[in-house]
């Protein structure tokens, strides 16, 4: 295995698509989506068996972790996945290439998430997920956009669509036809709360109501 896995991309024979909750009040699922006709273009190194085994050479191993981080970010951006269950991801095509019968081990997958965390690209939702043999079903955020970026994206949409001083339900903000072209369409409810919290602190929004009846007014 070399430190350069190559820039070319090849499509996988199996695919995943995001599962969308039927209503805003339904808790966001961390399940890996079911197959569909939409195909994620897996990179060529995904079909290289040594990619799934931790490399001993430090330089090569760092390159390997970087490639795994890039793959996870690209995969989640493609399917608009905001958080992952480590256990479920290990059984999915993301970490398990059935074509070459190679799978990333739980220990190595955890190391990848820790690497992404140090790079500011992941965050454990359960701190138990950091311990070996603990929190096997732990969930982590995947920051293909960080919270600040999400807040900025929502603020830009508010400006561009003249939504200032308008009251919207959180459902309308993420599930309506008006936001279908936006990356925050179908956003995880917990992540939306984080992004709106930043706008509230900046004096650009006010959130009111309770649970699934919440609304937001932008300034």
Describe what this molecule looks like in 3D.
- By secondary structure, the chain is an alpha+beta fold.
- The chain folds into two domains: 44-126 and 135-142, Orthogonal Bundle (Arc Repressor Mutant, subunit A), CATH 1.10.10; 147-218, Winged helix-like DNA-binding domain superfamily/Winged helix DNA-binding domain (Arc Repressor Mutant, subunit A).
- It contains six helices and eight strands; from the N terminus they run αβαββαββαβααββ.
- The strands form three sheets. The protein has a three-stranded antiparallel β-sheet. The chain has a three-stranded antiparallel β-sheet with strand order 6-8-7.
- Helix 4 (147-160) crosses helix 6.
- The longest helix has 22 residues, at 58-79.
- The relative contact order is 0.13.
Low-confidence stretches: 1-29, 128-136
Share of helix among residues? Answer: 25-40%
- State the order of secondary-structure elements, H for helix, E for strand: HEHEEHEEHEHHEE
Please report the total strand number as a whole number.
8
CATH architecture of the largest domain, please?
Orthogonal Bundle
- Approximate strand percentage: 5-15%
The name of the CATH topology of the largest domain is Arc Repressor Mutant, subunit A
Structural class call reads: alpha+beta
GO molecular function: protein homodimerization activity; structural molecule activity
Family: Belongs to the VPS25 family.
Organism: Rhynchosporium graminicola
Main location: cytoplasm
């Amino acid at each position: 295995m070399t430190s350069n896995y190559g820039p070319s991309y090849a499509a996988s024979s199996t695919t995943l698509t995001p599962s969308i909750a039927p209503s805003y009040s339904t808790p966001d699922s961390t399940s890996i989506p079911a197959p569909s006709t939409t195909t994620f273009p897996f990179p060529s190194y995904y079909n290289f068996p040594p990619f799934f085994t931790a490399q001993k050479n430090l330089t090569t191993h760092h390159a390997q972790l970087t490639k795994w981080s890039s793959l996870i970010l690209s995969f989640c951006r493609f399917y608009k996945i905001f958080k992952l269950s480590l256990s479920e991801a290990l059984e999915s095509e993301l970490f398990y290439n059935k074509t070459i019968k190679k799978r990333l081990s739980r220990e190595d997958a955890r190391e990848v998430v820790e690497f992404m965390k140090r790079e500011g690209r992941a965050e454990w939702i359960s701190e138990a997920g950091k311990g070996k043999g603990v929190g096997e079903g732990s969930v982590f955020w995947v920051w293909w956009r960080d919270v600040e970026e999400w807040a900025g994206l929502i603020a830009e949409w508010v400006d561009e669509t003249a939504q200032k001083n308008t009251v919207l339900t959180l459902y309308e903000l993420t599930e309506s036809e008006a936001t279908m072209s936006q990356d925050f369409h179908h956003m995880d409810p917990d992540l939306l709360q984080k992004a709106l919290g930043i706008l509230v602190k900046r004096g650009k929004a006010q959130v009111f109501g309770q649970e699934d009846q919440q609304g937001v007014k932008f300034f």
